[in-house]
Amino acid sequence: MWKIKPLSDAEATVTGHVPGRGRYAGMTGALRVRSAEGLEFRLASGMTDAV
């Protein structure tokens, strides 16, 4: 038996970053991005401490 999960995929342009806070001070906290439709948002999920 296979477990299949739905997946959404999109592309966006990185426009900047937000500094980390607390134990992440001095690191990248989130990336500021803009989609092709002009939607701007922050993306932080999936980054490692090395980023």
TrEMBL record:
InterPro entries: DNA_ligase_OB, NA-bd_OB-fold. Residues 19-50 form the DNA ligase OB-like domain. Pfam families: DNA_ligase_OB_2. This is DNA ligase OB-like domain-containing protein.
